[in-house]
Amino acid sequence: SKKQAEKAVHQKKEQSKTKCRKARRRHINLVAEFNHRQRKNIWLETHIWHAKRFHMVKKWGYCLGNSPTEKSYRACYRAMTKHCLLQDLSYYCCLELKGKENDLLKQLARICSIDSGLTFQEACCLSGRFEGSLNLYRADRYPEDMLGPVTFIWKPRDGSENRQLWIWVHPALKQDILRELKAIFQCSEPEEICITEPVITSIQEEKQVEVVTSLGHKRKKEDKEGEKAVPVKKIIGDGTRDPFQSYSWIARTTGVAISDRSMEILRYRLIGPLSHSVLTETLKAASVQTV
């Protein structure tokens, strides 16, 4: 009857008000939804914060904050000059080189020149105390065929002849520089392509997103046996690499290994006179136990 219908509608309204608006609007699985939305452009870890305050742009396989939605330019300038301003540079790509120090320096000398500034062999940088910056060129082609600017950090010496070097490159330059590094060190493709975890999680996410209908009606996600599906893990990926491509290469003659560590090592830039104070207050030295 009409009375019963009105009663049912009234009860439905009462039930909907039992949860707060935030809880009612929450996606059935936020991580699955976020993974689905990152299929084309990877998010940085600070994405949610930036997305609420910035106009976002899609560049180089990432979703990046471009300009603030509010007039906060004066606040940013004030932070840079008097306080501390933090930028998320995690979209910069990290290429890791491992091998004997002499083998690394011998080949790296071919793609840079002392005439253009620092080289990988600079004493203060080679010790691991300071970060260096230089321009890279195609092997034995200086001053022609410049690849682009990079920054680099050597891992401090541990008494072994084996060293570790991180080269940070802009995502637009990554493929060219990676190709040149593989060529000078004669690194071959691995026999079996290593599939990283993000591929597995994206397949799980595909299955789970399917059960959420486009109309917004949600039902409990279940697998074939009727049990609750395993929660989807967060994507740890790279916007500049196809997930089915390999991410590590090795030279059979020298044993030098090149690894693509993009988005595995986060990077932040602190600007301003209080940057050092912020770091000292935030970071605490770990207690090293000697056996």
UniProtKB/TrEMBL annotation:
Record-level GO BP terms: tRNA 5'-leader removal
All copies of the Pop1 N-terminal domain together span 4-99
Per the UniProt record, one Pfam family is POP1_N
Naming one, the record's GO cellular component terms include: nucleolar ribonuclease P complex
Q: Which PANTHER family does the entry mention?
A: RIBONUCLEASES P/MRP PROTEIN SUBUNIT POP1, RIBONUCLEASES P_MRP PROTEIN SUBUNIT POP1
Q: What is this protein called?
A: POP1 protein
Organism classification: Eukaryota, Metazoa, Chordata, Craniata, Vertebrata
